[in-house]
Amino acid sequence: MTSSPPIARPLSALRGLLPFLRPHRGRVVLAFVLLCLGSAAILVVPLAFRDLIDAGFGGDVAGAGLFGAQGLDGRFVALVGLALFWAVVVAARYYTVSWIGERVTADLRSAVYARVLHQSPQFFETLQTGEVLSRLTGDTTLVQTVVGSSISMGLRSLFQFVGGMLMLAVTSVQLFGLIVGLMTVLALPIAVIGRRVRRLSRASQDRIADASALAGEILNAMPTVQAFTQEANEARRFAARSETGFQAAVQRTRVRALLTALIIAAVMGTIIFVLWIGARQVQAGTLSVGELGAFLIYAALVAGGVGTLAEVWGDVMRASGATERLMELLHAEPAIRDGDAARAGEGARATPAAHAALPAIAFDHVVFCYPARPGVRAIDDISLQIAPGERIALVGPSGAGKTSLFQLLLRYYEASAGCIRISGSDIRALSLHALRAGIAIVPQDPVIFSASALENIRYGRPDASDAEVIAAARAAAADEFIARLPEGYASFLGERGTRLSGGQRQRIAIARAILKGAPILLLDEATSALDAESEILVQQGLAAAMRGRTTLIIAHRLATVQKVDRIVVMDAGRIVETGTPADLRRQGGLYARLAALQLEA
Ligand SMILES: Nc1ncnc2c1ncn2[C@@H]1O[C@H](COP(=O)(O)OP(=O)(O)OP(=O)(O)O)[C@@H](O)[C@H]1O
């Protein structure tokens, strides 16, 4: 993801921002008008200065000045008025343009985030969360700089440049020609260097994202890092990535410094040049001192305009690199999408068959390889019919493919071959929302959000009442420990549930699934972290939850699945045995061996 090919035309990446600007057309036009007014004011100021200087030197006061024939005081008043007008216009433009910048950045950030939330797990196998965060914060800030200031600065400088050149041309065509020549010579290296800045800028943003990705992973694993006393090592690893970021930034800065030197040379060179020519003309009596003053200001405006343009160009190049990275996220196609029928809104097939009272589930010759390991069959030709309301236990050695089967049923991944049906409909034809709304899962490693116990359980069904949440907690035997927390259900559970034990986290997750009340229930080692006593309580709750549901249970401890309707034994991605616990024990296969080890021990 980080190494996309460089784009041919540097500005084409910025085109991706247009959809975000379009809703604010009115403000963009307003900003443009203010920009024109401000630029016009700047271009008039030197003329007013000329009048003032010439009036002060007792020159041709009576002549037609910019504001007509006025005395010294009148010309001062005119200049003050012009300055005030300029101040107000600039302030208004600053506000409008910054508003647009902030608005576009906020919208872009939300749009990218929303897009990322729809990606399938495969996406996050290749792109680390720290990297996504870095793009959401760092890259959007670069875009904000450009939309919220650089573009307007650039346009202002452009007007200033063009206007100043025109005024210079009007005064002296010969001088104008010389300046154009000078500018052309200087513009070439500036353009070349600007292009390098863009490339180096993307590289340096990528390095910063690398460091963020590493920090994100390590900060999430602090207990492990400390248990293995790897703090110093991890600090070094981060410092090394930081250092690469520094190197990339230094390289970029070096090129920009060169750019700055060129720009200053261009600005000073132009001013000195004009001063020289002008001074000679004053000496020769062909130019007034006021005209020379105006001349100098125009030259400074033109040179300053070029300088700012070059600087803005550097910023635009940086933002172009950042936009490119953001657009990659914004246009990332989720690997898993709603079925065609669901997208087309064809009622019957798109509506959740999963919501039928008691769904049946059928795996039909399902084969699956994880995208990261295309050659290895995690699921190898599995066929399994599950009747409505049936309770099935999946058992078998670690790595047999039990969790993978759940992942396929939830359509986190797409089966490589074969098909999965719920109540007769291929899950690929359902909308993802409908499919997943029909399934409640207690995962192996439950996630607890940094919120209260009440809100954590309510995640299962956001519109559930407090009473319903508490009832679910009771059924999951979570009520007893939640009531003992300092603030009961309102107690904050800490980030990632750090204030709970493993068994308590599991019970919150079970309560959440019970509250969801979906017709299909998936339990992945749901009670593995519980002590014997709470396990009995939770099993009672789960038994109640399984009534009237089609349930799949993954269990390593066979004692917990003695009451299911059927046991499916998996090994190396295949189903090796199926039957009731008693049948399987009689058959003397893998299950009998596992049972002998566990139950009789
Ligand atoms: N994201 C992934 N990318 C590549 N391979 C994976 C991925 N997740 C799991 N696997 C592999 O797929 C195989 C099946 O894994 P799965 O998690 O389904 O096993 P399991 O039966 O649930 O094991 P356990 O009982 O230990 O949870 C394993 O060999 C595992 O290494």
Fold and architecture overview:
By secondary structure, the chain is α/β, with parallel strands linked by helices. It has 2 domains: 15-330, Up-down Bundle (ABC transporter transmembrane region fold), CATH 1.20.1560; 352-598, Rossmann fold, CATH 3.40.50. The chain is 62% helix and 9% strand. The chain is built from 20 helices and 10 strands. It has a 6-stranded mixed beta sheet, sandwiched between helices. A 4-stranded antiparallel beta sheet has the order 2-1-4-5, with helices on one face. Helix 2 (25-56) packs antiparallel against helix 3 (72-117) and helix 3 (72-117) packs antiparallel against helix 5. Residues 125, 370, 372-373, 378, 398-404 line the site of adenosine-5'-triphosphate.
Helicity level: 55-70%
Give the biggest sheet.
Answer: 6 strands, mixed
Molecular shape: elongated
User: Mean pLDDT, as a whole number?
Assistant: 83
Strand arrangement within the widest β-sheet reads: 6-7-8-3-9-10
- Measured on Cα atoms, how large is the radius of gyration? 35 Å
Structure class:
alpha/beta
Q: Would you tell me which CATH topology of the largest domain applies? A: ABC transporter transmembrane region fold
- Domains (count): 2
Unreliable runs: 1-9, 346-356
Helix and strand pattern: HHHHHHHHHHHEEEHEEHEHHHHEHEEEHH
Distinct helical segment count: 20
Count of β-strands: 10
N-to-C span = 51 Å
What CATH first level of the largest domain would be assigned? Mainly Alpha
- What percent of residues are in strands? 5-15%
Domain ABC transmembrane type-1: 29-318
Main location: membrane
Transmembrane segments: 28-49, 76-95, 153-170, 176-194, 257-277, 289-310
Domain ABC transporter: 361-597
